[in-house]
């Protein structure tokens, strides 16, 4: 209680001191406001005159801005008038040029018609020239092909000669093998006979050595020791001679076997070589292809000569075209310029209207500027007035706020004096209460209360700490429980997913095994389907269904002709091209899901009949939105829907003609 009373006395004393300081500041502020009021009253007339001058200046500045706006509008109107006038003059000059262009179009009409005629003639002859050049390239290709076929024919003829030599050599080897085999069989028979004789002698010698009889087991004469020794010696000599003869025969037999092995290896080698050598049918095919190539070469050469005769006038036509100097281009430029007459006339009329409008606007603005008059003198008088009353104006502005707060500051001073008196009364009461509390104070009881309070506070701190620890442990347990529940849920989800994946794995394993087992059969079926389609396409391309094309599971191409099978390397150039195209077309038709296909030079190495067949076959391909064929010959021109013809001039390739 004493502490509380002492604190209250201290607080009241501080409040009294604070109120006294506030009263002092309030008295000073009242004095300042009274002085400011005197200044404001003394300068009020000058202040009002300054405000009036400011209003007048704002009005004058408004007029200045109005005049500036009028001047800017006048300048803009004058620029518009100048632009419109220049535009009118330019349009009049362009109309004069249009009249000249119209006259030029009429003048060049005949020359343009002549240019069109010459260009059409030149284009037609250039197409013929391209055909002739293509025929020349084709003739060179045919000549090269003929040379290659000649080389191949010579190689096949040499191969056939070698095949006949191999066959003769093989027959000789077979005869020698038969002789060697008969001799070997005879040696083996002799060896068997000698072995029997050797075995008989060995048995006689054994009987002589082991018998105790009085008679000889061979000649049935009395068997003496001398006779036994003679017989044993004779048998030993004969057995030695037989062994030598058998060794000699075995050595000869081994030699015969080695010769037979060498001859058989030579026979196998000759058979392998004979399998790789050409047949008589290949020579006939080559000769037939050479005859067809020779006929085509002759036809191409004659056709090229006729075309070269047709393009003999091409240089003179080009010279005539150059001499014209492109009248169509000049006429097109003049016609484009002449076509602008209507637009230019409309633009000229619009420009004339804009020029008139700008001229009227300039006159109107001049009238408005004359009404505004001269503002410089009025601005100068206004500036002198403002300068004269500026001091009074600034003095009023500086002291007006303080003067306006005089009444408020007086009220605040009165309120502070009342509060100060009240605070002094309360301070006296607090001092009296403090003295009474000090008279009633018991120090020993105070110490007991302090000790009890300290113990209670310590126990409260311990209990608070225990509660905090328990709350922390509870939060940790709750967090751990939530984590465990989440882990349990994730574990359950993972187990379900694991079971689902196991089922999927089993299904996939079953599918994989099934697909693996069915793979070879599916491949074989697809290859067979493509092979059948390729065989049909090949027959249509070659116009000959007696030859059967086969595409095997090893992706190799073979051709069966009259029972003779040839691989891709043994085919002629035209056959190789047709076979490759047939397989690719079959793959495209049977397997592809594309909507667009490109064929680059598909008729190379083919004669005219096969080119026509190939063109029809390619055009018959279905399942595509677009087919593009790039070719140097005109085989596809009649079959295609769209045709683009390009030509190379030096390093530049241009589109010469297009029918789309």
From TrEMBL:
Q: Which UniProt keywords apply?
A: ATP-binding, Coiled coil, Metal-binding, Nucleotide-binding, Zinc
Gene3D superfamilies according to UniProt: Helix hairpin bin (1.10.287.510), P-loop containing nucleotide triphosphate hydrolases (3.40.50.300)
SUPFAM superfamilies noted in UniProt: P-loop containing nucleoside triphosphate hydrolases, Rad50 coiled-coil Zn hook
Which residues are involved in binding Zn(2+)? 216, 219
- Which Pfam families does the record cross-reference, listed alphabetically? Rad50_zn_hook, SMC_N
MF-aspect GO terms: ATP binding; metal ion binding
Chain coiled-coil ranges = 9-36, 60-145, 177-303, 341-368, 403-440
Query: Which PROSITE patterns does the UniProt record give?
Result: ZN_HOOK
> Which intervals hold domain Zinc-hook?
170-268
Q: Is Manganese set as a keyword in this record?
A: no
Give the family from UniProt. Answer: Belongs to the SMC family. SbcC subfamily.
Subunit description: Heterodimer of SbcC and SbcD.
Protein name listed in UniProt:
Nuclease SbcCD subunit C
Q: What is the lineage of its organism?
A: Bacteria, Bacillati, Chloroflexota, Caldilineae, Caldilineales
């Amino acid at each position: 209680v004493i502490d509380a009373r002492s604190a209250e006395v201290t607080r009241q004393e501080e409040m009294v001191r604070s109120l006294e300081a506030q009263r002092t500041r309030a008295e000073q502020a009242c004095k300042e406001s009274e002085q400011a009021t005197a200044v404001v009253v003394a300068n009020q007339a000058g202040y009002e005159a300054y405000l009036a001058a400011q209003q007048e200046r704002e009005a004058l500045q408004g007029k200045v801005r109005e005049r500036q706006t009028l001047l800017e509008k006048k300048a803009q109107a004058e620029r518009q008038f100048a632009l419109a006038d220049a535009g009118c003059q330019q349009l009049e000059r362009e109309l004069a040029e249009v009249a000249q262009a119209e006259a030029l179009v009429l003048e060049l009409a005949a020359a343009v018609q002549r240019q069109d005629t010459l260009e059409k003639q030149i284009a037609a002859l250039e197409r013929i020239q391209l055909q002739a050049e293509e025929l020349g390239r084709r003739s060179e290709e045919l000549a090269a092909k003929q040379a290659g076929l000649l080389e191949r024919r010579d190689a096949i003829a040499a191969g056939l000669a070698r095949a006949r030599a191999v066959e003769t050599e093989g027959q000789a080897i077979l005869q020698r093998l038969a002789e060697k085999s008969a001799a070997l069989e005879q040696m083996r028979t002799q060896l068997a006979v000698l072995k029997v004789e050797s075995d008989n002698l060995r048995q006689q010698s054994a009987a002589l050595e082991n018998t105790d009889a009085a008679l000889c087991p061979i000649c049935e004469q009395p068997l003496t020791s001398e006779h036994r020794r003679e017989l044993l010696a004779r048998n030993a000599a004969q057995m030695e001679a037989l062994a030598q003869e058998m060794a000699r025969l075995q050595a000869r037999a081994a030699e015969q076997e080695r010769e037979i092995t060498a001859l058989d290896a030579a026979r196998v080698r000759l058979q392998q070589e004979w399998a790789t050598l050409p047949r008589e049918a290949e020579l006939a095919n080559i000769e037939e292809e050479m005859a067809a190539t020779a006929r085509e070469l002759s036809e191409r050469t004659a056709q090229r000569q006729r075309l070269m005769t047709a393009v003999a006038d091409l240089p003179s036509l080009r010279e005539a075209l150059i001499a014209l100097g492109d009248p169509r281009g000049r006429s097109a430029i003049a016609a484009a310029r002449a076509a602008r007459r209507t637009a230019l006339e409309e633009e000229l009329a619009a420009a004339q209207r804009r020029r008139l409008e700008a001229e009227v606007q300039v006159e109107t603005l001049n009238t408005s500027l004359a009404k505004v008059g001269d503002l410089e003198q009025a601005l100068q008088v206004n500036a002198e007035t403002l300068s004269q009353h500026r001091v009074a104006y600034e003095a009023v502005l500086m002291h007006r706020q303080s003067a306006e707060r005089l009444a408020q500051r007086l009220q605040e001073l009165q309120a502070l004096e009342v509060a100060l008196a009240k605070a002094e009364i309360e301070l006296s009461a607090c001092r009296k209460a403090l003295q009474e509390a000090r008279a009633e104070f018991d120090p020993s009881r105070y110490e007991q209360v302090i000790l009890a309070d300290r113990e209670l506070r310590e126990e409260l701190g311990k209990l608070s700490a225990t509660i905090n620890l328990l709350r922390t442990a509870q939060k940790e347990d709750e967090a751990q429980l939530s984590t465990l529940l989440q882990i349990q849920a994730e574990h359950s989800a993972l187990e379900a997913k694991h079971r689902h994946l196991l089922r999927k794995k089993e299904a996939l394993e079953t599918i994989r095994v099934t697909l693996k087992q069915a793979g070879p059969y599916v491949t074989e079926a697809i290859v067979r389907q493509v092979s059948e389609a390729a065989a049909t396409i090949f027959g249509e391309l070659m116009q000959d269904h007696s030859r059967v094309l086969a595409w095997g599971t090893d992706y190799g191409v073979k051709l069966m002709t009259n029972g003779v099978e040839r691989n891709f390397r043994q085919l002629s150039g035209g056959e190789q091209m047709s076979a490759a195209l047939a397989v690719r077309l079959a793959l495209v038709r049977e397997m592809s899901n594309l909507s667009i296909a490109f064929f680059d030079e598909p008729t190379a190495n083919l004669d005219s009949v096969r080119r026509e067949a190939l063109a029809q076959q390619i055009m018959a391909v279905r399942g595509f939105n677009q087919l593009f064929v790039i070719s140097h010959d005109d085989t596809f021109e009649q079959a295609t829907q769209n045709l683009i013809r390009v030509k190379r001039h030096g390093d530049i390739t241009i589109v010469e003609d297009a029918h789309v």
